[in-house]
Amino acid sequence: MDFKLKTNPIPNPNDYGKKAQIVDLGNGSSVVYVPKFLAYDVSWEFFSYLDNHIPWTRPTIHVFGRSCMQPRDTCYVASAGLPDLIYSGYQPRAYSWDEFPPLKDILDAVHKILPGSMFNSLLLNRYKGGSDYIGWHSDDEKLYGSTPEIASVSLGEIRSGEKPPLKRFKKSRQDDQHRFALKHGSLLVMKGNIQRDWLHSVPKRAKAETTRINLTFRRVMQD
Ligand SMILES: O=C(O)CCC(=O)C(=O)O
């Protein structure tokens, strides 16, 4: 019987057809960043559609035994028949892809650049200014399996005079952190063991005034 190694989990930048940055975080975790995933003008069209048509809500969540308002707007879209998503004691209503056709166009583009991915759910986040944020966390819900691939598309103006919004990855020590500037129209993919071994966050930014929208595509496992 012959054996061969499975495909190396660290991808090749050429596979993405566009300029990609690939960061190997070790132990089977990696991040792929494609700064110009969607064209600039098209990205603004998507931004404007989503800003105006998505039924954004700002739910109450429960974290560390306390109730608080989630510090960003959110909406959940998923294919029919999937197990419910519940996070921080909150179960979002699952909207259908058919209600927001442009989301299907973005999903198609994501599937094209990530062959083999079969995303069936999407969490949308809208950060209306610098005090909106998401704290350190990992997307380690059982729903997504043990090594989920998660594709994150960012839309929104890069604030003038400021650094762009950041996604940070942290393991345990302060010096073991990676920081990514998430540009308008960019794609960031989290792969392998990253949800098991790393945390990520989008921190507050004191002077930020403009809105940023982020879409995270995930695959919910079915029995
Ligand atoms: O806005 C982002 O880039 C991150 C969103 C995120 O981490 C999440 O929804 O779990």
Automatic annotation (TrEMBL):
Signal peptide: none
PROSITE patterns: FE2OG_OXY
Any one GO BP annotation for this protein: DNA alkylation repair
Binding, substrate: 64-66, 140
Residues the entry annotates as binding 2-oxoglutarate: 125, 127, 137, 200, 212, 216, 218
Residue stretches making up the Fe2OG dioxygenase domain: 118-221
Cited Pfam families: 2OG-FeII_Oxy_2 (PF13532)
SUPFAM superfamilies: Clavaminate synthase-like
GO molecular function: broad specificity oxidative DNA demethylase activity; cytosine C-5 DNA demethylase activity; ferrous iron binding
PANTHER family found in the cross-reference section: ALPHA-KETOGLUTARATE-DEPENDENT DIOXYGENASE ALKB HOMOLOG 2, DNA OXIDATIVE DEMETHYLASE ALKBH2
Family indicated by similarity: Belongs to the alkB family.
Name under which the protein is recorded: Alpha-ketoglutarate-dependent dioxygenase alkB-like protein 2
Phylogenetic lineage: Eukaryota, Viridiplantae, Streptophyta, Embryophyta, Tracheophyta
